[in-house]
Automatic annotation (TrEMBL):
Key words of the record: Chromosome, DNA-binding, Nucleosome core, Nucleus
Family affiliation: Belongs to the histone H3 family.
Protein name: Core Histone H2A/H2B/H3 domain-containing protein
Domain of life: Eukaryota
GO CC field: nucleosome; nucleus
Places the protein is found: Chromosome; Nucleus
Residue span, Core Histone H2A/H2B/H3 domain: 39-69
GO molecular function, one term: structural constituent of chromatin
Length: 78
């Protein structure tokens, strides 16, 4: 247990009077710090975003052309 009880210390009135009498200037944020992610975190966030969405990453028509060309190549060889 503590030997002595701590008591509240009153402020000097001089400080409070000068504090309220001066005009206050708001501190503006000039350059907020950019958030830095750990390596790989941003990639995982992007993967999750793409998995949630239903949009195609590659356009449908060009992709179907590629698949058709590749299928024809393998069909002729085999």
């Amino acid at each position: 247990m503590a030997k002595h009880k701590q008591t509240y210390h009153k402020r000097k009135t001089l400080l409070t009077c000068t504090f309220f009498s001066e005009p206050q200037v708001k501190a503006t944020k000039t350059n907020p710090k950019k958030r830095r992610f750990r390596p790989g975190t941003k990639a995982l966030m992007e993967i999750r975003k793409q998995q949630k969405s239903s949009e195609l990453l590659i356009k449908k028509r060009p992709f179907s052309r590629l698949v058709r060309q590749d299928g024809l190549k393998h069909h002729c060889i085999g």
